[in-house]
Amino acid sequence: xxxxxxxxxxxxxxxxxxxxxxxxxxxxxxxxxxxxxxxxxxxxxxxxxxxxxxxxxxxxxxxxxxxxxxxxxxxxxxxxxxxxxxxxxxxxxxxxxxxxxxxxxxxxxxxxxxxxxxxxxxxxxxxxxxxxxxxxxxxxxxxxxxxxxxxxxxxxxxxxxxxxxxxxxxx
Length: 171
What we know:
The chain folds into two domains: about 1-130, Rhodanese-like domain (Oxidized Rhodanese, domain 1); about 130-170. The chain has a five-stranded parallel β-sheet with strand order 1-5-4-2-3. The longest helix is centred in the C-terminal third of the chain and has 38 residues, at about 135-170. By secondary structure, it is α/β, with parallel strands linked by helices. Strand 4, helix 5 (about 95-105) and strand 5 form a beta-alpha-beta unit. It has helices at about 1-15, 25-30, 40-50, 70-80, 95-105, 115-120, 135-170, and strands at about 20-25, 35-40, 55, 85-90, 110-115. About 55% of the residues lie in helices and about 15% in strands.
């Protein structure tokens, strides 16, 4: 009885799981509102560039090792339960494996972008330079610091103008 129940439950999750395989196109990337998860490594992001507004969550590291729990933890911070999302790699060989894992075994609604970044670039997509989160945080801090300095300069200039006006009005 337990085996029959388990089999029915397993079949139910396979039927409910959603995997869509579509060739990646510039139009899909630029017009689609589906979140794109870039599962490549950081060196690949640096070498080929990245898709604007994609989420960068490496699945395999540089040594082809993976940590499914760490990947899912990061993924679940970006994706809502039941939300459809797309995954992309360099040529789509990794996304085929991962989309099957995510869709069939873990019940995610995943779109496998066939052809990957290589196909997208061949089609003329203008990639963006990859900037690591640490560098983005540093740039933001520098921007805030510079804005603060500019505000201080404006305050000083206003005081100097007021002082000049006071001197001119007393003459």
